[in-house]
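Journal club side-thread
Mid-discussion, someone asked how the predicted structure for our own chain would compare to the paper's figures. Pasting it here so we can look after the session.
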Amino acid sequence: GWLYCDDGAGEKADFIHIDEYLGSTIVSLIHIKAANSISSGRRISVGAHDIVLSQAVKNLRYSNRKNLIQDLTERAANSKNKMCWHENKLIQSSDFLNKLTTLNANPNKIKTRVIVIQPHTTKSYYLKSHNNNIKRQLDVLLVSSDNAIKSSGAEFHIIGFNDD
């Protein structure tokens, strides 16, 4: 696939990925934040999730391809160091932007995904936290983010840390 690194101030997402899958083109806006701790016993952090989920929701306007192309083109013009790859080979940002611009305009063939990666919460701790107020706060934050993202027409995926 195609991968564009937009990490930095004013980013639309940390990474933007384009790939073909089962006859559809999938454009993924990927938002990533590091865990607040390296401890294997770390607890749920609503704050750690809030930062990256807020960024994802704030940048929902870029699930509209026209907005994404316009803003990435402006950013690329102001930065000579945007890293991009196609099939694991380094390419120019203009190649990525050309690909994004020439995607089939049929909305049934293009799907947008918002992917949030926040490894602070471990699967084992999350699953064992049944009647925990902090887990409830995180669940409310996740559901509200899910609703906002899906209302824009995008799919929502969140990835934590699977410590099984």
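Post-session note: The beta strands are 2-5, 15-21, 24-32, 84-86, 89-91, 110-122, 155-161.
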